Structure formats: structure tokens, C-alpha cells
């Protein structure tokens, strides 16, 4: 009688007499020899008993190998960069960040101009409604400012400075090339795990597009808008669960050496034989490095550490209490992006927030949304302070709004002008820089010169962007370039700008630069 074969478990390897020994990764997968790191490593463990191959000084050469394999250990050493894409046409100028005439933020607009920007006659900046705690002047009742202040400490605020850029952009369209992420990457920003991330599944990572000539599909932003997107990026397999993290790293390093020993004994016969072997070895080195850095679940977890989230981040817990974090998806999104970028896991990130087309013939809707956006901005700045690294934070929107002077006297309306329509001529963007070593210094030898560097361009008295006040004033592409120039200038690398991005901003780049460098090349 024919002997019946026993059924195998779903994970059992398949031995076929009529098949050669598996060689390629496809062979291993097809025959169930490769089913994740647990089985692969288990099959290799007997070789670890050979001390001639798996020698005792397991980690002595790993840093050298990481460097040779191009594995970053702390990002690219550039200033972390986060931008807020407020989709719909948010108010930025006047009621939030002050914008003035040619002399700077305190070269005040006319009363009618401020009315168009939603400020009634009894709340004018020239009457004392100014707050400069962040270096950059805000209206003292700015919803952005109130949100930022609610999430930042006094010490953090003393190390922040910023600049505003009055610049027109089209209303209610994603076609404004406002997103600078690819240019920031080209300027050197990069991360340990990812180059770019964004909260929207788009080529820019947000609502507004990136300039077409800057897009690099090889670094398209990876979507991150919740904690699961972050913690799901790294899977160290079952090995870490079967032994402690340090021993797991030693096993992975030993497998890398075993692989190299075996590769040295064979030849593919191809001209690229050495390159192929190096790539195979680097794959194992990278695996060991991932287990070393991310075998501990708390390394990436962006949730606030608490009884409910024991693997969470203690710094985030001081910014977002658990109940607040659990109740608001915008806070969870912000925490996820800021954790990745500020810790160097990603080079730059976009946080898209929707609902800023708030010309609803009231003021309360916009105030509430601006306040929450400010909380998210403040969270990023405070987290950078807690981690101890600099941060450049950029805020922009597609178009803007204006008021007809009617006021909203409700609690959330705060007696300010209602937003009655879109108005791209009142648009602006701004950036804030946190520097652990102290507030970034404006260019210029006098207060008058510094005021012009804190406001790059200006408005006319009636609160319309003066379209000749800067190259960016009436050209969204150049607005993005001007932002990138300022990022490079923080590293003292503005001299490389023209070679990378052309001379559309002209030859006198200092005119459109806000700050002296805060780091030298890398951090």
C-alpha cells in the first residue's frame, strides 16, 4: 500500500527531492523557509555556535559598517522642519500675525485696512494690542497666539523668533505651489527612517502642491496622521520578543558576519559581484541597526506616556494630557508628525489641517479653528524644546479672507470682525524658529533694518499686499523659494541657494533673509 503523507502545518518548510536547494529569496519564500525574521533567524542560529565566525566583539565594527552602508544614525544633522498647511484660506495677517507697511510690522496700516483684516477700531495694534513674546509681533488677542501660549513654557517662548511674508495666493485651490518640502529635502533635510512625511496622501503630503520643478518622486512623503502610522513603520519580528533587545542585536550582527563569510567564498561571475555582495551585507546591517534602535516599542510611540500608554512618550504627555489626546484627532496627528521629525526619524513633515475656508458671516468659527491650530503649532515648539533641538515651523494657507467691518459679539466671536468672503490680496505666511541656544538674531545693524528683515515685503495702508514689495508678493513659486532660502540661511548655507534653485530671487539674497545662522552646517 502506498504510504500516505502527513499534512504539514501552514508554516512548515517544504522539502522537494525534485527541486534544487533554495538559493534566491523567491525560492525561500516559495518553499516556506522564509516566513519573517523569526524563522529565518531560527534557521541560522546553529551557525552562531562557531566562534570563528560569530566572534565575541560583536559591536566593534558595526558603526564602521553603518557608515559604509550609508545608514544615518541621527538624521542628516539639519534643523527639523514642520509646515502647517491650513486648507481653505485662513486669516494670517493682522488678526493673527501683524503685517504693516514698508517700515515693518509696526508701520501700521490704516484703520480701514485693519477693519478689512477683522480688527475693529477698539482693538487696533497701535492702541497697544501687540504681543512680542515670540519675537515676531502678533495681535495680542490672536487665536494662533493664544493656542501657542497654551502649549509652550515661558522658557521656550524666550527662544523663539519669527518672520512674516505678505504674499498673495489663489483662494480655495490646491494648485498653489506653496509646499516647500521637496526643496527642504534638496537643501539637506533627511531622516533616519524617511526623508519626508505628510498627513495627506498626496505628492506634497498636504493640500497645496509643491513647485513642479522641485518634486522628486523618490522621496514622495509617506502618509503619517495617527500613532499607528508611526508605530507600524518598524517591525523587528519575533526575535526581540524571544530574547532581550541587546541579545537580539548581537544575533543580527552575527548573521551579518556569517553572510559576509559565505559571500566571500562564492562568486556570481558578474561584473557587479562586489556591489551585489555589499548590498546583501548592508541589508543585514540595517536589520541589526533597526533592532538596536527600535526594538524598544517606546522609541517611536507618539502617544503620551500614561497608565493607558506605558510605551508612550513622556515629553508628549506634558503637552497633550491623555484625555485631550484621545479626544482630538488633530492632536494625535500633530503628535505623530512632530515625534517623527523632531527626533530625526524624518527630515521634514507637513501637517494639513482642514476647515479654514471660514468666511461664514461670523467670527466664532474661525477663532475656534485658529486656536486649535495654534495649540498644534505650540505643541511642536514645546516638544522641540523638551527634546533639545532647533525647529523651523512654517504656516501657510491657500488664499485668505476679509471682513466687511460687522462684528461678532458672541463669546467665541470676541467682538471682532466677521469673515464675509475670500480675499487672496490679504494673504500672508509666517515662520517661527526655535533655537535651544537662544532667540535667533535678525539681520541688520539697526532696529529699522531688523524690522524689514522680520517682515519680508509689506502691505499698502488698505491691507492689500503690495505686489512689488518682494519677489514673493505676487508669485507663489517664489514665496516657496524664499522660505527655502531662509531655511538654508539658518545653517549659514544661503550661498548655495542660487546653484540649487536658480537666481529668481535676484543677487542680493540677504534682502529676503530674516535671521543670522543658528547652526553651522549641521546640528
Can you give me a brief rundown of this structure?
It is built from 18 helices and eleven strands. The strands form three sheets. It has a seven-stranded mixed beta sheet with strand order 4-11-8-1-7-5-6, sandwiched between helices.
Written description of the protein model:
The chain is of the alpha/beta class and 523 residues long. It folds into two domains: 81-232 and 309-512; 235-299, no CATH class. It has 18 helices and eleven strands. The chain has helices at residues 25-30, 37-44, 62-68, 111-116, 143-151, 154-157, 181-186, 227-231, 239-242, 245-264, 273-294, 314-319, 322-327, 329-342, 364-387, 447-454, 476-490, 497-501; strands at 81-86, 130-134, 136-139, 160-166, 194-198, 222-223, 346-353, 391-397, 401-408, 416-422, 428-434. The strands form three sheets. It has a seven-stranded mixed sheet with strand order 4-11-8-1-7-5-6, with helices on both faces. Strands 2-3 form a two-stranded antiparallel sheet. A two-stranded antiparallel ribbon has the order 9-10. A hairpin with a 1-residue loop joins strand 2 and strand 3. Helix 3 crosses helix 11 and helix 10 (245-264) packs antiparallel against helix 11. The protein is globular and about 85 Å long. 48% of the residues are buried.
Counting DSSP E segments of at least 2 residues, the number of strands comes to 11
The low-confidence parts are: 8-12, 25-58
Portion of residues in beta strands equals 5-15%
Helices, by number, come to: 18
Class by alpha and beta content: alpha/beta
Strand order across the biggest sheet? 4-11-8-1-7-5-6
Helix content: 25-40%
How many domains? The number is 2
Shape: globular
Mean pLDDT across every amino acid position: 86
Amino acid at each position: 500500500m502506498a504510504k500516505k503523507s502527513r499534512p504539514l502545518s501552514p508554516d512548515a518548510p517544504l522539502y522537494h527531492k525534485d527541486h534544487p536547494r533554495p538559493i534566491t529569496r523567491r525560492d525561500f519564500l516559495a518553499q516556506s523557509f522564509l516566513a519573517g525574521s523569526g524563522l529565518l533567524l531560527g534557521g541560522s542560529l546553529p551557525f552562531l555556535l562557531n566562534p570563528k565566525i560569530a566572534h565575541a566583539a560583536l559591536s566593534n565594527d558595526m558603526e564602521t559598517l553603518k557608515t559604509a552602508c550609508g545608514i544615518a544614525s541621527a538624521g542628516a544633522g539639519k534643523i527639523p522642519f514642520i509646515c502647517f498647511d491650513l486648507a481653505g484660506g485662513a486669516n494670517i495677517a493682522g488678526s493673527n500675525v501683524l503685517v504693516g507697511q514698508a517700515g515693518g510690522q509696526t508701520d501700521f496700516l490704516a484703520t480701514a485696512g485693519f477693519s478689512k483684516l477683522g480688527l475693529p477700531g477698539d482693538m487696533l495694534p497701535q492702541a497697544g494690542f501687540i504681543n512680542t513674546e515670540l519675537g515676531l509681533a502678533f495681535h495680542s488677542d490672536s487665536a494662533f497666539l493664544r493656542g501657542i501660549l497654551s502649549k509652550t513654557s515661558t522658557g521656550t517662548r524666550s527662544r523663539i523668533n519669527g518672520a512674516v511674508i505678505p504674499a498673495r495666493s489663489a483662494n480655495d485651490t490646491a494648485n498653489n505651489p506653496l509646499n516647500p518640502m521637496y526643496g527642504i529635502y534638496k537643501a539637506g533635510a533627511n531622516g533616519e527612517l524617511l526623508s519626508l512625511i505628510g498627513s495627506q496622501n498626496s505628492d506634497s503630503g498636504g493640500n497645496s502642491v509643491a513647485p513642479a520643478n522641485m518634486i522628486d518622486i523618490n522621496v514622495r512623503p509617506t502618509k503619517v496622521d495617527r500613532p499607528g502610522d508611526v508605530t507600524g513603520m518598524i517591525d523587528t519580528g519575533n526575535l526581540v520578543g524571544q530574547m532581550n533587545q541587546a541579545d537580539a542585536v548581537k544575533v543580527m550582527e552575527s548573521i551579518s558576519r556569517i553572510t559576509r563569510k559565505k559571500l566571500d567564498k562564492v562568486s556570481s561571475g558578474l561584473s557587479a559581484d562586489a556591489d551585489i555582495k555589499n548590498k546583501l551585507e548592508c541589508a543585514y546591517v540595517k536589520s541589526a541597526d533597526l533592532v538596536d534602535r527600535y526594538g524598544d516599542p517606546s522609541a517611536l510611540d507618539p502617544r503620551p506616556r500614561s497608565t493607558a500608554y506605558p510605551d508612550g512618550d513622556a515629553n508628549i504627555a506634558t503637552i497633550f494630557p491623555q484625555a485631550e489626546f484621545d479626544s482630538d484627532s488633530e492632536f494625535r496627528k500633530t503628535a505623530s508628525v512632530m515625534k517623527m521629525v523632531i527626533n530625526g526619524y524624518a527630515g521634514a513633515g507637513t501637517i494639513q489641517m482642514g476647515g479654514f475656508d471660514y468666511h461664514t458671516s461670523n467670527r466664532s468659527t474661525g477663532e475656534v479653528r485658529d486656536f486649535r491650530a495654534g495649540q498644534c503649532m505650540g505643541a511642536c515648539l514645546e516638544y522641540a524644546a523638551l527634546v533639545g533641538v532647533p525647529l523651523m515651523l512654517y504656516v501657510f494657507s491657500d488664499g485668505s479672507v476679509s471682513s466687511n467691518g460687522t462684528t461678532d459679539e458672541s463669546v467665541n466671536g470676541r467682538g471682532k470682525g466677521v469673515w464675509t468672503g475670500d480675499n487672496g490680496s490679504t494673504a500672508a505666511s509666517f515662520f517661527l524658529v526655535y533655537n535651544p541656544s537662544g532667540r535667533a538674531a535678525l539681520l541688520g545693524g539697526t532696529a529699522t533694518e531688523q524690522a524689514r528683515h522680520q517682515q519680508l515685503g509689506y502691505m499698502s495702508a488698505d491691507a492689500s499686499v503690495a505686489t512689488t514689495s518682494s519677489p514673493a508678493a505676487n508669485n507663489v513659486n517664489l514665496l516657496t523659494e524664499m522660505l527655502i532660502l531662509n531655511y538654508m540661511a539658518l545653517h549659514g548655507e544661503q550661498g548655495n541657494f542660487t546653484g540649487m534653485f536658480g537666481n529668481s530671487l535676484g543677487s542680493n539674497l540677504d534682502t529676503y533673509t530674516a535671521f543670522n545662522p543658528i547652526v553651522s552646517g549641521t546640528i
